[in-house]
Design a protein that fits this description.
Chain lengths: ~450, ~450
């Protein structure tokens, strides 16, 4: 009796109810699904689970950055640090005083009035001579060498591309090294002295202001921040320029015959501290004020100079145009130099450093061992370069190390390779270090210096 | 007949087949689902669609960065530029030659052998005297002033925090300005001369090497890259130190009575180029080699110096410990200076610049107008600062501009505010610029210079 009852209950609990006509699967019990449906449901659940997992991973990726899966907390902290830094910088950068009349509007230059750099200077040579005689502690010649002031600089704000600041730092170290060896003073400018003449024109008001403020300086040498010294021995042969007031790298045939817009290069040039220079700037600067004047001047320059693309007036094209159109007035005091690389365009030079090391030596300054390697178009500080980033950065690294090796040699070191920031000994330590000084100190070298005094 | 046939066909096409017993929904046609199932299926599809959309958004977020949805193409290009730059840098950074024995293993220093900086120098004073007499073109005194070489530097690779390179650049500009005004040469080091003595110890082999290589230099002045000149007029009163060989900022009571680990600061100090200095380094350096030696030395220093946290030996603590434990041997030639801020801890100074401008003037060098403001603990180049990033960056900006104003004054300019990179005229242009030179050139100032010659 019990047996039967159990079986009856069993039959009841297996989800029976009334009678036939139910689908087969019902035999599995109340709530049991058809096999196919269960498989589909399970499959759906798996799909959702996978998607959720994927989503989780992507959330992490978006938060801690691409490729940082598994990175340590340090990277997360670093990222936060960088973001906070950027926020603070944006704050510093955005300073502007709405009540400051200088901040108002854009260019207030009246295009009908010739722009000037400042009050006209007319008697500088005599005034300077008097000042020099009254201030013998600030001579314009030291040990027979004319006093040179190297001027360079960069914008006051951090570079758009962070690596730009690192290469600006290396560039100024490179200049510090050369100038220390050769007794040249440096001004590193990070200020915009004239709102109208910003960008490549900024060097004009700067050089002018420095000349006025440093009458003891005989030559002001402007050098772009993207130009590196690559011959640490070579000295500018100033004796060649005793009758000149402007020394600039270029090619006379490109200038006079082709009227090319790249006939001269204003990335590295020297101006004598004299009245003639004021007069030249007074006619050069008016093409520079930003806005309609600079744009119109740009059109004139493009129309008149071979190969010039259409863009606003730049200082280099403007100078070329000026020297061509007023040749008789200026060219007798302009020395167009190409016997050595006062400016050396990087593309033809940077791949040859190993060859130079093998065949030549510092002090030549020319295509065998370039004085200056100039990274025109690389623009590591900005966002829009004319050349591939990789090519530029690696080439600048090579040029820097090529130069640095010439400095480190005195200390018995050299870079492991032209692309390496690491150094190694190139000379054993000695108990007679002063012999090394005699042998390796560049300042004791006579190569390339025979014509330097003027 | 046709009618009937059509109806029969219709009935057949509606999915009929045999007869009764089919579920009600079947009346909708072959393949039609139950309503509930259709709703569930639709809902599942919606879920999947939403998830997929979400996934897409997250993919974009992870690729172009948080908050950049909708950025312009320029930002995308900039971001690509930065990523490519980082890739190239990683390549340059990772240079290592597996065949170079110097690259192998970690420290090979045997802890049982005292580390040395190089071959022992024992007769430097006499040798240097002979060299100087043989090389009169490299005198150690110029116009009565002892020749000083300022040494600073930073690692050869870009900073972890990109803003670090920008502040290194500003810091070196600040030093260039001071040194130009005061006739001091600069060496900016970006090389690791000694693998064992890296980090804060790196200055030891560097200073030693520079002294050996520059016998014409009377004093080597080490200055950290995070220390800025904030008094452009003040000159180190070298006459006070005619009987000293090491000039370092600190407090005697902190040193001798409290044995505090911050009693002296090695961020800015001067060593005379003489035998005594070699001897001191020979006993100072052995605590520095990284690894077990530096760690063990750190434990000793923490145990013996008040307030020192537990970490590996640093050069400053090691020097303090040395001068305390070998007081009789060294202290007679050490000048512990605190009459002016050869090192000025930034926290108590940066908020007072406005007060200083109001009440005092450059040339004092002390708490009224600090000579050097030193940003200890800010570490803009690294990732782990001891102070809040915002506080540090803004304070460094203020210190830089506070100093820069003193330089720009000669040129008639000044910053718009201590936090502003922009400048404005503080003096009208003049037709007699040389009068401004007489009035504003710092080099003509006699303030703070009365004791400078030694």
């Amino acid at each position: 009796m019990v047996q039967e009852n159990f079986t009856a209950q069993k039959r009841a609990s297996s989800g029976g109810g009334a009678g036939g006509g139910l689908p087969e699967t019902r035999g599995r019990g109340i709530g049991a699904m058809p096999r196919g449906r269960q498989i589909r449901k399970t499959f759906n659940n798996i799909k959702i689970t996978i998607l959720c997992g994927f989503v989780t991973i992507l959330v992490l990726r978006g938060t801690i950055g691409v490729g940082n899966l598994g990175s340590s907390d340090a990277d997360a902290i670093n990222q936060n640090l960088i973001e906070e830094t950027n926020r603070i910088l944006a704050e510093i950068r955005s300073d502007s005083d709405p009540n400051d009349p200088d901040e108002l509007a854009e260019s207030k230059i009246d295009p009908n009035i010739t722009y000037t750099l400042g009050p006209k200077i007319t008697n500088w040579d005599d005034e300077r001579k008097v000042w020099l005689s009254q201030n013998p502690e600030f001579p314009n010649f030291i040990n027979g060498k004319a006093r040179i002031l190297l001027v360079t600089g960069s914008p006051p704000k951090p570079c758009d591309n962070p690596i730009g600041d690192h290469y600006l730092l290396k560039s100024v170290k490179n200049k510090i090294d050369y100038c220390r060896i050769h007794g040249i003073e440096i001004v590193y400018n990070m200020a915009h002295l004239d709102k109208e003449l910003a960008g490549y024109w900024a060097k004009l008001p700067l050089i002018r202001k420095l000349m006025l403020s440093h009458p003891e300086v005989e030559w002001i040498w402007w050098m772009d921040s993207d130009a590196l010294f690559t011959d640490m021995v070579f000295e500018i042969p100033l004796a060649k320029y005793s009758n000149s007031n402007l020394v600039i790298h270029g090619y006379p045939d490109l200038l006079f015959e082709q009227k090319s817009w790249i006939a001269l290069n204003t990335g590295s040039f020297l101006f004598r501290n004299c009245q003639w220079s004021w007069d030249l700037w007074d006619v050069w600067a008016p093409m520079g004020p930003k806005g309609p004047i600079r744009e119109e001047a740009g059109r004139i320059l493009t129309a008149n100079l071979k190969g010039r693309p259409a863009f606003e007036a730049d200082d280099q094209s403007a100078l070329i145009y000026l020297l061509l159109s007023q040749k008789d007035q200026w060219m007798d005091k302009v020395f167009v130099e190409n016997q050595y690389y006062l400016h050396g365009f990087w593309e033809g030079l940077v791949d040859r450093y190993e060859e130079m090391l093998e065949k030549y030596h510092p002090g030549l300054g020319d295509e065998r061992w370039p004085f200056v390697t100039h990274f025109v178009g690389c623009k590591p500080c900005g966002s829009y370069a004319d050349y591939a980033v990789e090519r530029c950065l690696k080439s600048m690294e090579r040029a820097f190390n090529f130069a640095d090796n010439q400095v480190l040699k005195l200390y018995g070191f050299g870079h492991r390779g032209l692309l390496s920031p690491k150094i190694k000994r190139v000379r054993n330590e000695t108990t007679t270090p002063l012999e090394s000084v005699e042998k390796f100190d560049v300042r004791g070298s006579t190569i390339g210096k025979s014509e330097s005094h003027s």
